Amino acid sequence: MEGRLSTQRWRIAGPDLIDWREWGDEFVVRVAPRSETHLLSAAAGSILLTLLDGREALTLDAIYASAVDDADTGASSNGSSMSAAERQSLQAIVTDFERLGILIRTAA
Fold this sequence. Notes:
Shape: globular
Number of strands: 5
Largest sheet: 3 strands, antiparallel
CATH architecture: Alpha-Beta Complex
Number of domains: 1
Strand order of the largest sheet: 2-3-4
Distance between the termini: 15 Å
CATH topology: Outer Surface Protein A, domain 3
Number of helices: 4
Low-confidence stretches: none
Mean pLDDT: 81
CATH class: Alpha Beta
Radius of gyration: 13 Å
Strand content: 15-25%
Helix content: 40-55%
């Protein structure tokens, strides 16, 4: 299954339909077509911002690399790879975003 996940890509379903606000380490996102508002963790908010900044669909590895670079933690995404726990956590966030209508999966 991991090989299949490495080729899948995701993008924001409708960037103009997503409204978000950040308060401290929490994010609130409103998905206009569904008239839903969701409270996100800091990690999920970071992933949301990474995907909103991108113009193309991203793989899990590309999402991770962008999030690491954006976090400015001093860790370089070059040569840095996700641990199994990080991959599982990121996949859970992406799956939740799909379920909420924030992300759509695209062909690789």
